[in-house]
Amino acid sequence: GEVWCVSKHLLAASMRLIEVGTKYQKDGRKDEAKDLFSKAYNLYSLFWGINLKLINVSDVKKIDDSQLDIHDKEKIGFLGKLGSVVKKMLDCCKE
């Protein structure tokens, strides 16, 4: 039940970010659109990480807001690695 619920919300949020990003891109707000597309991809990567059992949701803990840095430009650590796995998986499907 938990995996289904988390997955559903991750995909819904990802799609919403893509919708808003597309609107921003149409309005000429390219940088904002790119940021939203990047965030959508991160959520999509989390979706796959959970569904491929790369992430155990029982290990997920709430972190303090002070640990998040909105000024980080390059994703390193967990999200960076997970995004690379999803990218490789999708690139594999293109062939």
Describe the biggest sheet?
none
Q: C-alpha Rg, in Å?
A: 14 Å
For the termini, the CA-CA separation is 34 Å
The proportion of residues in beta strands is under 5%
Oligomer: single chain
Give the overall shape, derived from the CA principal axes: globular
Mean pLDDT: 79
The computed structural class is mainly alpha
Helix percentage range: 55-70%
Topology pattern, helix = H, strand = E: HHH
User: Residue ranges: pLDDT <50 for 5 or more in a row?
Assistant: none
| Annotation, overall tally of beta strands | 0
Helical segment count: 3
Overview of the molecule:
This protein is mainly α and 95 residues long. 67% of the residues lie in helices and 0% in strands. It is built from three helices and no strands. Helix 2 (30-51) packs across helix 3 (78-94). 16% of the residues are buried.
What features would you highlight for this structure?
95 residues; mainly alpha; 67% helix; globular
Annotate the secondary structure layout.
Layout: H1 2-26, H2 30-51, H3 78-94
Helix pairs in contact: 1-2, 2-3
